[in-house]
């Protein structure tokens, strides 16, 4: 059985749990380092990245997550920011995907939008909801770009990490979560 | 690629979902906003005066001076909310034009209209509104509110009304979920709630928007209590910057919200915080001094 953790600092935790369970995975809301030993993959949900970073720091999760090199991770919106090695104008957080992200790159909340988005490796267009969303400004060549909105990079994959600027957890579209689960299971398979 | 759609229900309600499990703090200037952000607030509410000072000042309380809101917007990267008077279309439009991330159509300010609330679907900006019971919450959702909060009794530092409102909404939702479908229309009549909203609640098994606690939260334990009662997150108004040590209070309330069911932790983080804001017994307030009955 595959168990996926959802980082439980704040944000759309319940929504990710619902989607992962709909795909048949076990879930665990992660609030302490001990939880990390029990999971095969970790979802970093949407929320407020500034607040999440403060909480990760204060509650002692930042360093263990930075040091962890085996756990596949999937970040949405704030989660994408957490995974980047560079954040324009701010300190980087978990530093997993070699890319530079720009926060609130589409504008403020009144500019938030939804769109049908083609994503590489996923057959049908994904229902993508962008909320005060970040963009990936630049990526290292090793990073695979999965989706773009008017030339702005909004979804990427690198090694065992997946990240997108939008919120699949706010829709009923399970395809991004399935993509991540496939990656987690492929990695498990490799190990056994 | 298809065209981008802005201001949709998904985008507005989704914004509120991102605030879940977090604390939204009232601030009156850029400096307070920075303290709130550093303490881990998920958003700040930019105001001219916190509710307890609005009570003291008396007179008509209106939308804040746009300078204050702009200063706060320039100082932090978390979302900035601001309040308009109930039914004040122009104040709401002004806030929207400034790019405020969330508008609180709030009973803390003196209502501009005692009969009609804003038709909130007409705006690109999302709205939060107060509610004392499920009827009121459903009316606001029907008008397009993307987030509901308890009214509580603002500026009192007294949790009793927020508890009453949260328990009432939760109990009424449970009752609605246990009803057979042929009883729903009569319930809609009795609650004064739009039938369609009640049907959406039945389908989702909960309110279709997030429900935060507000009005009287003054300590970390107050925040934990509201989370225990089913709040999705908390607003703290006067509770932080009217406390003896705002930084410590802000951090402790954030931590108590994240770990609301870890009581040893709350015991530890509640130590030596200094004086909380001075509270008010709601029963000593005159009827015209109460804010919760504003709006319907």
Automatic annotation (TrEMBL), chain B:
Which InterPro entries does the entry link to? Aldolase_TIM, PdxS/SNZ, PdxS/SNZ_N, RibuloseP-bd_barrel
Q: Which GO terms describe its molecular function?
A: pyridoxal 5'-phosphate synthase (glutamine hydrolysing) activity
Q: What class of enzyme is it?
A: lyase
- Residue ranges of domain PdxS/SNZ N-terminal in the record: 9-214
Q: Which reaction does it catalyse?
A: aldehydo-D-ribose 5-phosphate + D-glyceraldehyde 3-phosphate + L-glutamine = pyridoxal 5'-phosphate + L-glutamate + phosphate + 3 H2O + H(+)
Residues annotated as catalytic: 83
One GO BP: pyridoxal phosphate biosynthetic process
Instruction: Give the keywords, sorted.
Output: Lyase, Pyridoxal phosphate, Schiff base
EC number from the UniProt entry:
4.3.3.6
Residues annotated to bind D-ribose 5-phosphate = 26, 155, 216, 237-238
Q: In which pathway does it act?
A: Cofactor biosynthesis; pyridoxal 5'-phosphate biosynthesis
Keyword Lyase recorded: yes
Detail which positions bind D-glyceraldehyde 3-phosphate: 167
Please give the family membership noted in the entry: Belongs to the PdxS/SNZ family.
Q: What does this protein do?
A: Catalyzes the formation of pyridoxal 5'-phosphate from ribose 5-phosphate (RBP), glyceraldehyde 3-phosphate (G3P) and ammonia. The ammonia is provided by the PdxT subunit. Can also use ribulose 5-phosphate and dihydroxyacetone phosphate as substrates, resulting from enzyme-catalyzed isomerization of RBP and G3P, respectively.
Subunit structure, briefly?
A: Homohexamer and homododecamer. In the presence of PdxT, forms a dodecamer of heterodimers.
Q: What NCBIfam families does this protein's entry cite? A: PRK04180.1, pyridoxal 5'-phosphate synthase lyase subunit PdxS
Q: What is this protein called?
A: Pyridoxal 5'-phosphate synthase subunit PdxS
Origin species? Exiguobacterium aurantiacum
